Description:
single chain; four-stranded antiparallel sheet
Amino acid sequence: MMRTMMRASALACLLATSAFAQQPNSSVETHYARYRAAIERGDVQDAEGAATAALDASRQRDGDGGHTATLAYNLALVRIDDGRPGEAIEPATLALRIAEAGSASGLDPLLARLAFGQAQLAISPEQGASSLANALSDAAQRTDLDDRAFRAAAALGTWALEREQYEVARVAWAQAVAHVRGQAPADILARERARTAQAVAMIAEHAANERAAARDQAYALLTDSMDALYPFAIEQAANGEITPFQAAYAEAAGWRAYGRATYTPRELVRQTDLQGRAVCETYWSGGSGVGALIQGAFEGRTGVGVFRITTDDAGRIVSIDTAFATPPQDFSTSITPHLARLRARRASGAEPGCLMPQVIFQTIVFVGVLR
């Protein structure tokens, strides 16, 4: 959370730092320095206190002039990125009013609009959604605002999915994807989670028509996400817990299997690890009757479960964990014991010299029957 806050506040900090440095110390500069120090060490409470004090001192000394707009924006971001956007409405409103009044404020009005939209979304959702949609449209070509625009788009997309406003969600998540341009692991994770959410919105938007072209497009998006996440997803954490990449991969896999159009092909794609080495295609042996047992346990139900299965060098199962399920449910007694009977084998057509994976994802979809 604090890493998010530090990135989100970075631009505002840059806008103000040089000007502050050229002025003699005052209560504004003292409080601002404390705010920066708190951001650096990840202390949300002290950062908020210092940002509040700096804003109050600036308003008392400079009114709406000086750096009041930037300081109000900083305070709004601290609260928004700490998961309290509704509490950010007052400083966000102040920042926006001053920023839109003239360039002398030192704060980009579009940045202020994005922050205000997130705050407004929490207290006046329909108006906030409209404000954010307009601001995001204007931010489409602003690569310098990518970080803040991504977070605003994700906030709008999350809200719209929860409200079943799927067209709004689809557009917002597509905007979020467009604002992640880097290739660092954190960028890949953020982008592919957003891409998965975009596809989910498309599947939900066309839930009544399996043959809708959008369902094929969603399948393609989810396939792209799985391909991008897979090399990271087969890496195991030292403590054995499901990693963020594994959870993200499982979610994409689950929705792809559950939401696929009836005529969408299930393509086999060459998978590699992080070093680019080919990973073997595998199959399960020892599964005679397993499918029937699982189907019997879930006859008539609808849903999907994706299991992260770890194996030893011989393909024997070491652990089985539910990495994703919709609707959420406990498979520990209904499915896990049956899967434990399986053993991973190298497929006959696997690439020569490939690596046997020790993390395998198994998707099971229930739509009245097992598939």
